[in-house]
Amino acid sequence: GLILNITGDNDDMGNISYVKVKKDGIFAVVNGEELKFSASLDGLDLDLTNARVVRINPSSRGLIENYSPVAYKATEDGLKISSSDLKNILITSKVSEPFTDVNDTDWFKSYVEEAYNYGFTQGTSLDTYNPHASITRGEFAVMIARALELKASGNTESFTDVKGKWYEEQVRALKAAGIVSGFEDGTFGGDKTITREEAAKMLLNMLESLGRDTTVKGVSTLIDMYKVSDFAKHAVMFLSSKEVLSGDENKKFNPTNNLTRAEMAKVLVKTLKLTDLY
Which stretches does DSSP call E strand in 57-185? Predict the structure, then answer.
């Protein structure tokens, strides 16, 4: 693999739009112009169109649970890395997910493997994913914040019930970005399981925070749209039109059902691919 470790002062790094890793070198893109950092990578046995990019804690000794996501997209001529932090980035070939409870015939197999390679999730243990378990609002918020590499500033406002929680920093960061708004009583409810319609609303907010046009074109084919809460109707209609969300065999969305970990892998991966980051 390849370790990418680019440093500089704030002005220099702030001028970089993104980094392009190609066979003929590593380039910083500044104002649309490619500036070469390094020589050719032809000697590196790595398929850049099928690469995996994660950030590794130097003290982690390679443990997967210490990897974190890096915003990147594989293109025909190399890797586009959009992260604002270009330190401790590990580029390798993609790996197989290690979970004994995810089978090749499962509909969610490819999504779990993608989420694992991106570093969005590491499973409930080193070798189990627990795909049919529900996830909490806090867990979902952490995955979104990690994928976007969002961090809260010291004066970011919070919800009344997140102080001291393991997901506090990520929820605060999402609140500052306008991705979560909580409940009318000022709480976030991070320990509550997240419903399918709540997840849809968070994902739509994420897209809009990144400047994505979420205009709905066409009519939804879900037969239970009347059951979707008003706050989530636009989100469900848009994401279903993009095939991020889908109904069951009876074309029902089941908006108040809990989102499962298998469903989470699908909707998070597919929504992020609607952005310029992944």
Answer: 67-69, 72-75, 78-81, 89-93
Q: How far apart are the first and last CA of the chain?
A: 20
* Residues contacting 273, CB < 8 A, separation 6+: none
CA dist list (Å): 194 to 76, 150, 191, 198, 216: 37, 21, 9, 6, 24
What's the longest Cα–Cα distance across the chain?
59
Please answer whether residues 245 and 267 qualify as being in contact, where contact means their C-beta atoms are separated by less than 8 angstroms: yes
Please provide residue 50's backbone torsions phi and psi, each rounded to the nearest 5 degrees: -130, 40
Q: Strands 78-81 and 72-75: what pairing? A: antiparallel
Task: Give me 109's structure tokens.
Answer: 């197999």
Asked if 78 and 48 touch (Cβ cutoff 8 Å), the reply is yes
**pLDDT tens digits along 44-99:** 788 888 899 999 876 555 444 578 999 999 988 889 999 988 899 999 999 999 99
Q: How far apart are CA 214 and CA 220, in angstroms?
A: 14
Contacts of 205 (CB under 8 A, 6+ apart): 178, 179, 180, 181, 235
